[in-house]
Amino acid sequence: MSLFFKTLRWLFGLFLLLLVLYGLGRLLHIAQDSLYIGERASYLQLASHSQMTVRWQSIKSYQGELRYGPSPDKLDGRVSEVRNTNLHEITIRNLKAMTRYYYRYGIKGDDKSSGQTHWFVTSPEMGSEKSTRFWVLGDPGLAIPGQTKVRNAALEWLKSNKRPGRADLDILLTTGDNAYKSGTNEEFQKHFFEPFKTILSNVPVWPVFGNHDARRWSFFRIFSFPTQGEAGGVPSGTEHYYSFDYGSVHFVVLDSHASRWNNNREMVKWLRKDLIANRLPWVISLFHHPPYSKGSHNSDSQRDSRGRMFEMRENVLPVLEEHGVDLVLNGHSHMYERSFLIDCHYGNSQSIKKSMILSRNKQHYVKRSIGKGKHEGTIYAVVGSSARADHGPMDHPVMAESLMETGSLVVDVVRNRLDARFISGEGLIADHFSITKGVNNATVNGCE
Ligand SMILES: [Fe+2]
After folding, report:
1. Interval between CA 256 and ligand 1 midpoint (Å)
2. Most buried residue, 141, 212, 252, 330, by most Cβ within 10 Å?
3. What totals of helices (H) and strands (E) does the chain contain, helices first?
4. How far apart are CA 184 and CA 207, in angstroms?
């Protein structure tokens, strides 16, 4: 062999070695980031009418214990962990629906180790007509002044608009990208759990999986998901997508990032089954990548976000609309964009037809069925500016409102009416829309 080929072979070997070393280093870095454990106050998971899961983290490994009861002075219920751990998770079962419970958590058998008393309220019985108020944070995971302003503005609004006899808020939902930049456990603590800790100890959170959450292995270790239909809906058997009920609302949370979204894939098969089985009148779906956006992401582009917005629009939206989804909430684009009542628009923004916009009213929308109705129209909202707002053309033709402003969405569902308010970081109601069901002369479409 000539010297030339020997040198070439040697260089190729060196290149392969460096590639393997880089890969191992990267893997180690990801593992180290993912396995970080710090102190974390309690947060509520898997909420239903009869159970609640309380989670927290501790640097020191110990057997955790939860004391709970009907008043702060009467914490006579006790549930303990069976082994030492840093990632604590205790589920309380056989609770009464729509009931406020108080709790303390700490080291097993050491009542002095328990900190302050927190509370939670269980969900209403499934199918109950009780009203629902939920708060939606989109791409909130950046502890910057913008996030603080958005949080404080919404909390102030909730405080000034209380519902008699009810907590200020029933549930907290996110549209993904919960912790920038890479979704490490440490970043989750700094950018999500610390800023929202006073809410998270008392109000259950249901998160969406965003692309930034997917960069480390923390997301699925931090949160608990109803893979077996623990809170209503058809069991999905996976943590990536799931559904749950609250009162008269069926929530469907999808994974637009990692799950395979093509028509014949498992997520869409499950989605169909879940929506057919649903008997609740309101259906709201959340996933990260918006099917319609001309914000900091362009839903017309096959290359943007590797075509995820495109694929969700083509393969998931027809199923959602066929089964009467009322509202779809997304993030990813760091702004607020909210559509008219639309139906059957599965192409790019230039392909929209007049018939696909069922109502051009800027604020109020009506639907014929009191329950779920096929192709009666859906509102799509991109809520992605709960920490910062970015730039974009903001000219998607389905949108009734496009705002380059920080903010979050508060949604009320009371019997046959839904009201959603986008509360800006400046404390203004920058958008307010409503959907009323059971209106006879409402338009019904049907894709041709
Ligand atoms: Fe994103």
Report:
1. 10
2. 330
3. 8, 23
4. 15
- Please give the model's pTM, rounded to 2 decimal places: 0.93
Ligand 1 center from residue 393 Cα (angstroms): 18
Q: CA 352 to CA 308: how far, in whole Å?
A: 20
Total count of residues recorded for the chain: 448
DSSP state of 388: -
∠ CA 344-349-351, rounded to 5°:
60
DSSP-assigned states of every residue in 254-307? --SSSS--STTSHHHHHHHHHHHH---SEEEEE-SS-SS-BSSSBTT-SSGGGG
Could you give the domains of the chain? Answer: 40-121 (2.60.40.10), 132-437 (3.60.21.10)
Distance 386 CA to ligand 1 centre (A): 12
Ligand 1: distance of its center to the CA of 257 in Å? 9
| Radius of gyration of the chain measured on its C-alpha atoms | 23
- Of 237, 238, 207, the C-alpha closest to 223 is 207
Q: Are 376 and 367 in contact (CB under 8 A)?
A: yes
- Which residues on neighbouring strands pair with residue 106, listed in sequence order? 65
d(CA 162, CA 146) in angstroms, rounded, equals 25
Gap from CA of 346 to ligand 1 centroid (Å): 21
> What is the Å distance from ligand 1's center to 46 Cα?
24
Confidence band of 113 (pLDDT split at 50, 70, 90): low
From the CA of 302, how far away is ligand 1's center (Å)?
Answer: 16
The predicted-structure confidence for 247-289, as pLDDT tens digits, reads as follows 999 999 999 998 866 666 899 999 999 999 999 999 999 999 9
Torsion of CA 135, 383, 366, 413, to 10 degrees: -10
Is residue 153 classed as helix, strand or coil in its secondary structure? helix
C-alpha 420 – ligand 1 centre gap (Å): 23
